[in-house]
Each structure stands twice: as structure tokens, then as C-alpha cells.
UniProtKB/TrEMBL annotation:
It comes from the Bacteria. InterPro entries: MFS, MFS_trans_sf. The chain crosses the membrane at residues 41-63, 83-106, 118-144, 215-233, 254-282, 288-310, 322-340, 346-370, 382-405, 411-430. This is MFS transporter. The lineage of its organism: Bacteria, Bacillati, Actinomycetota, Actinomycetes, Kitasatosporales. The keyword Repeat does not apply. Keywords: Membrane, Transmembrane, Transmembrane helix. The keyword Transmembrane applies. It comes from Streptomyces johnsoniae.
Length: 440
């Protein structure tokens, strides 16, 4: 850059753009190069600039994808050998019920002894259960042995909660930057949850139909075990274990926790009913093959909204944002019965896409609240309680939605997920924590 004459103003405004140093006279703004896209993604760039974050995120996603595969893979495997959806549903439901009990207990061990020491044997037990079920089905073992194998699958670690705990540890504290980083991290994790539950069933169905009925379960077990082992090997980002019991009430009795779990239970009921009713809606119209794509629209809307929500700067209190997000979810879910009356999957899919956009922000903010009310040394247990509430809600919603379909048809049954969303909003609005929650 040439030097200015001595009579020229001595101060220049400097900026770097595209690797070049650019000068502007006083009073002028430096020229701006149009690269707004990367700037909008800056919160995620800053998030993954922390050393070790990519190294634990990638294997965690590999370990998490099977969570969306096991259910569909088990159903397709059992129906191929027995032709009974009742048996397949009972086996899957048994695993869900057991997971709601075992999950928090395993998470408590994780908080006490560290992630790697607990999740490696837990993943081995889980893989043994799924591969044992595969062997029992293929070899024609008695049906009761299927349920015995499901006892072991309940040991599956809550991989999403493990990843969230690492983000919370890396960005702990009340500083504004840490609070914003946790918000972005929770949004990213929620979007990845939606992505796994959107792609998992598709991958499982493709494997079971293109290869052999046991291929989905076999692949999911290998991915879960391999991803968990690789995740556990990333020790430098692992939160330190508490080593001893954390003083104070357990997470279940923490102020505000019961109300949050009540909301998560209602949201889980929404998810469970939505899946069953949408499949029935498609089957009633002879378009069952499109049910997966329609449900994927809801997950896609939620994933996209989650990623966009992570780019926003959090404003106001977390409790206020949570109340507004759940209320928005109730409003959007209220469109479902109206769309169903048109009796068209082409109309229902975009409505589900739009309705799903309120799901991720509500879940992101809810998980942030869970992290705030849970004692610092028992974070995995607190987040796993939320997942257990969701699983319990999914089981309840699946049963309730299915019963309503049998009694009144799928169009009327869409009132169930709408009612669950409205109940979640009512619970959130009517309850308040006993003491103000503070960011950590």
C-alpha cells in the first residue's frame, strides 16, 4: 500500500477482507465484502473452534443414529419371522419401559464414575442384547427369550445427554459467552437428534428389505458399539466424575424438575401419538409407503428450526422462552386436525413440516432449563430423566393414539397430539420454579 503524503490525515481505518488489508479515509466505513453466509454461521464456528469438540461429536452421532434404527429394525425382523405386529410391538414396548427405569440409574453411575468407565460396559451389554435377540429370532428360540434379551438392551447409554454434558462442561459458568455457547450447543444437539430419528428408520427399513430381515438390527448394533467406544476414547473433553454423592436433593426432587418432566411427558405423548396416527392415516388411504416420508417432514422441520434457533442470541429468561416456545408448539399442532379433514397426505406433509418447527426450540430451551435446575455433579442423571419422561410419553401416546384410531379413525385421532401439545403448554404456563434458576 503506498504511503500517504505528510499533509494527509495520519489516521486510517483498516480492515482485513479476503486476506487483503484495505484502508479507508476517516469518516468512511471500510468496504465490506459480501460473505454474510459464514458470518451468520459464526455461533457454530465458534462452538467447534474449541479443541476436541469435533473429535467427540462425530463418534457420538454414529452411536446415536441406531436409536432411530432399533425400533423399526426390530419390528421388521420379528414380523418377517412371525408375521405378528402385536408381538413386535410388545417386544419394542418392553425395551422402552425398561429403558425409562434403567436410563437414569446408568446416568447416575456416569456422574459418579465418569463417562468412559460406565458407557463402555453399558454399550457392550446393549450390543449383546440386540445380537442375542437377532440370534434367538434366527434360530427359532422361544418367544420368552426375546424379552430376556430386551432386558440387556435397556442398558443403552443416553448418547445425546452425554454429548450435552460435555458441552455444558466446556462452556460452564454464568458469563454471557458461556450462556450463548450452551444455547447454540443445545440447539445443535437437538437438530442432530431430529436428524438421527429422521434418517434412522429409513436406513433400517432399507437394510431389512434390500439385504435380509436381520440386517437392520445387526448394523445398528455395530454402529452403536463402535461409535460409543470411539466417543469414550475422547477423554480430554470428558467432564470430571463427582466421585462421591453430590449434597442436596436428587435431580428428581430439584425445584422445578417435576414441572419440566411433566411437560416432557406431554411432548413425548405428542410424538408417540403423531407417529401412530400418521401411519394409520396413510394406511386408511392406501398410501402406507408414504407414511415415513410424511413423518420425516415433521423431523426435517424440527431439525431446521433447531439449527436456526441456535444462531439466535438468547433474550429474556430461559423460563419465559420455554413458556413461549411450548405455547407456539401448541398453536401450530392445532392445525393438524384441520389439515387431516382434507384427507390428503400432500396437504398433511407441509403442515407437519411447519408444526415441527416449534418442536426443536421448545426442546432446546427445555434441556437448558433441565441443566440449570440439576445439581452440577448430576447433570447426566438430570438429562436422562428428561429422556425417560419423553420415552414414557411416547409409550403413552402410542397406546392412546392407537386406541383412538381404532375407535374413531385417524382423522379424529389427530386430536390426541393436539391435546398433548395444549396440555404441555398448560403445564408450562401454570408451573413456576420455587426459586429463580440461574445460568451455570
Amino acid at each position: 500500500m503506498p504511503h500517504s503524503p505528510a499533509s494527509a490525515p495520519s489516521r486510517l481505518l483498516l480492515t482485513v477482507s479476503g486476506g487483503q488489508l484495505i484502508a479507508a479515509a476517516p469518516g468512511e466505513r471500510p468496504p465490506r465484502r459480501g460473505r454474510r453466509g459464514p458470518r451468520r454461521l459464526a455461533p457454530y464456528a465458534r462452538l467447534f473452534a474449541t479443541p476436541g469438540t469435533v473429535a467427540f461429536t462425530v463418534p457420538n452421532l454414529v452411536a446415536r443414529l441406531p436409536s432411530g434404527m432399533f425400533g423399526v429394525a426390530t419390528v421388521m425382523m420379528l414380523t418377517a419371522h412371525h408375521g405378528s405386529y402385536a408381538l413386535a410391538g410388545a417386544v419394542v414396548a418392553a425395551g422402552l419401559v425398561l429403558a425409562t427405569v434403567a436410563g437414569p440409574l446408568i446416568a447416575r453411575l456416569v456422574d459418579r464414575h465418569g463417562q468412559a468407565r460406565v458407557i463402555v460396559p453399558a454399550a457392550l451389554l446393549t450390543a449383546t442384547g440386540h445380537l442375542g435377540l437377532l440370534a434367538c429370532v434366527a434360530l427359532g428360540a422361544p418367544v420368552w427369550s426375546y424379552f430376556c434379551c430386551q432386558l440387556l438392551t435397556a442398558a443403552q447409554p443416553n448418547t445425546g445427554g452425554l454429548s450435552r454434558a460435555r458441552w455444558a462442561h466446556l462452556h460452564r459458568g454464568p458469563a454471557a459467552g458461556a450462556v450463548a455457547a450452551r444455547h447454540t450447543a443445545n440447539a445443535f444437539e437437538q437438530a442432530m437428534d431430529e436428524l438421527c430419528f429422521m434418517c434412522g428408520p429409513v436406513v433400517a427399513a432399507l437394510l431389512c428389505t434390500a439385504l435380509f430381515p436381520e440386517a437392520g438390527t445387526l448394523t445398528a448394533a455395530v454402529l452403536m458399539l463402535g461409535g460409543t467406544l470411539a466417543f469414550a476414547a475422547q477423554r480430554r473433553t470428558e467432564p470430571p466424575p463427582a466421585r462421591q454423592a453430590v449434597p442436596g436433593p436428587p435431580p428428581l426432587r430439584a425445584p422445578g424438575m417435576a414441572a419440566l418432566l411433566g411437560t416432557f411427558l406431554c411432548v413425548g405423548s405428542l410424538f408417540g401419538a403423531m407417529e401412530v396416527v400418521t401411519i394409520a392415516f396413510a394406511e386408511e388411504r392406501g398410501q402406507q409407503a408414504l407414511a415415513g416420508a410424511v413423518l420425516a417432514a415433521q423431523a426435517a422441520g424440527s431439525a431446521a428450526a433447531g439449527l436456526l434457533f441456535g444462531l439466535l442470541r438468547p433474550r429474556g429468561t430461559v423460563r419465559g422462552r420455554f413458556t413461549r416456545c411450548v405455547a407456539a408448539m401448541a398453536v401450530l399442532m392445532s392445525m393438524l386436525p384441520l389439515a387431516a379433514r382434507a384427507e390428503s397426505l400432500l396437504l398433511l406433509a407441509p403442515v407437519l413440516l411447519i408444526a415441527g418447527m416449534a418442536t426443536a426450540p421448545a426442546m432446546v430451551t427445555g434441556m437448558t432449563l433441565i441443566q440449570q435446575v440439576t445439581p452440577a455433579g448430576r447433570l447426566n442423571e438430570g438429562m436422562t430423566l428428561a429422556v425417560a419422561a419423553l420415552l414414557g410419553g411416547i409409550a403413552t401416546g402410542s397406546a392412546g393414539g392407537g386406541a383412538l384410531v381404532e375407535a374413531h379413525g385417524a382423522v379424529t385421532a389427530y386430536a390426541f397430539p393436539m391435546a398433548a401439545a395444549c396440555l404441555a403448554a398448560a403445564v408450562t404456563a401454570a408451573t413456576r420454579p420455587r426459586r429463580p434458576t440461574t445460568a451455570r
